[in-house]
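Run log, item B.
One chain of 239 residues. Sequence copied directly from the ordering sheet:
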Amino acid sequence: MLLTAVLGALSGASLMAQTNVYSLNVVGYINVTCYPGFNMIADQLQATNNTLAGLIVDSSGYLDGVTIYKWNGSSYALDFADSGAPPSYWDNGGTITLNPGEAAWLKNPFHTNITLTFVGTVPQGTLTTPILGPGKFTMVSSQVPEAGDLVTGLGFTNSSGAGLNNNGDKVYVWNVNPTTGAGAYTVYTSDFGGGSGYQQNWDPPGDPQVAVGQGFWYQTSTAALGGAAISWVRTFSVN
């Protein structure tokens, strides 16, 4: 999607150059497949309205019975899709947000997959995602619609010893087997292993893997930072 966006931006730039009008915004879309049962989803594009009411309007009743659960650090906010409740089609008003960097559970009550399509602008610049303090769980996602290695690819790094990935921090990635439909966590524990310069290691070995449109849990270790705030900060440009 990002490659397509870049090509579109380059094509558009040649046209805009003739009129002295310029824009660095890149608009795209992502399709998020939701399997029967629970899926941890994310919308990694900035829309005009990143609430459920703005992102998912279901006048046909296609999503009737779908439930969204969003963790606020201590409890879940819930909403239920219902085509009989216009204009938002959400029983609780559709006020839950899915901003880039956020994530939520979607419970698919059907026996077939659901595909959600999100449209918006690719976030660029300095992107800051807050992480809850020691011992707490944060439901989080990349702010950029990229898949791959969480640390080496998506910039989820610890550069000072007082940020992300302190020894004992954990990443929980929920994946669904598309063949069997079974869901399970892959759990990664941060382990410096005596490395210098805060070289990141994981137990089991290997950088945590996340997909486009997928969220994950991050749990800080109980001793991390002495209660200080944590942020995932990444500088990103499509170009």
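Observations after the first pass:
- The helical segments are 2-17, 52-55.
- The first strand starts at residue 27 and ends at 34.
Flagged for discussion on Thursday.
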